Amino acid sequence: MKLRRTLSTLPLVFILYFCTSGGPYTTEELVARVGPGLGLLILLLVPVFWSVPEALIVGELASMLPEEGGYYRWVYRAFGRFWAFQNGWWTWMYSLFDMAIYPVMFNTYLAYFFPHLTAGRQWIVALVVIWGATAINLRGALPVGRVSVVAGGLILAAFAAVVLSALPHIHHVPWAPFHAPEHAGVGAIGVALSLALWNYIGWDNASTVQGEVVDATRSYPRALAWGVPLVVLNYLVPLTAALAATDWAAWPGRPWPEIARMAGGGAGPALAVAVALGGMLSALALYNSLLLAYSRIPLAMAEDGMLPAAIAKTDRNGTPRNAVLFAALFYSAFALIPLEGLVVADVLLYAMALSLEFGALIALRRRAPELRGAFRIPVGDAGVTVMAAIPMAILVVVVGMEITQPDYGLPAVLGALGTAALGLVAYVAFERRPRGPGRPGPAVASGPPEQGKA
Q1: Cα separation of 311 and 317, whole Å?
Q2: CA-CA distance, 101 to 340, in Å (whole number)?
Q3: What is the pLDDT of residues 303-321, one digit of tens each?
Q4: pTM of this prediction?
């Protein structure tokens, strides 16, 4: 059974929204670390120097090779089997960190209503989140897209209500004070930058499901064009309004529901409930969309003979059921891990995988100039190289800053690097498996994309 192309542009926009953002949740932690002005500045500059270059490069690659497996396929085509495996491995490793965050987030906002849940009950709730999202994914990509549209609309509406309610209570500029003196060290700024990067990374994630997107060579760049400004405004507008209407000194340690209560005046209590419910919905929708995206990596690797062939099978509805179940079982073991160290490791592993994708576009432009999709960055190879170098330079700076934070920054960086190094061992182990007659070979396209090919 072949995969079915059922996702149009609108569901893809909101799948991207939840593969990248999911709402302003966690931005309050960023602001609390470095202060209002510096926090807003970071959230404004990171998309300019990180998200825009990433979205443009990913848009061209997605338009050039709109295949199931997305970025894994791009790296395979550009650099071959070894580096494709490393890209898949790094992606799978950072997805373990990434997917552990969202059940924790769900429990954080659930605690607004039930503040005394034990650790055991929180783990049970986390499993409900994981397997609830799995049940939606087992129905196919289109239900995931529909859930993403509804969840995204509700979350945006909740924060729009916060903004409107905060406007009559604005009494000072939102960027004062510029920074918090007690949290202005290099390590704190590095962790704040990691939080900002984490809130803006993921524009390539949904590329793995391009075999299930209608007119993928056009739809993915179009979805990126809508998604990037949506996410930027989704962060900056609520934060700016809430900071201008509240005393920032009361923010540290308070999640968004409490901030909505402070900013909303008489409507504050109702807004706090809406934002807390939105936080739970966001965590579920984030997990739901990312399970869709991440489960397609073992699917593609299985098609190439790097994982058991059974993972690549699809059911009668064209859903890769085994790949979804394989991913969900794996993620269930990582449901409750502290957030801060996760974010640092997550960003580093993601950026390592992303560097291969950026390199893939440079290599494919030079080696296969006939590969052209509906979207192409209107600059030459040198311009693309510079565009790719900027986010990587930011990563180097951020990692250097994080290392100065000894309690979790340095251990997280070392752990991420060690995890990545295990990819070399894993590659040797997988490649030494017997190649039986039923073991598939590489499933990589050898020519330009065909429009509408299922």
Answers
A1: 16
A2: 9
A3: 988 888 899 888 887 788 9
A4: 0.89
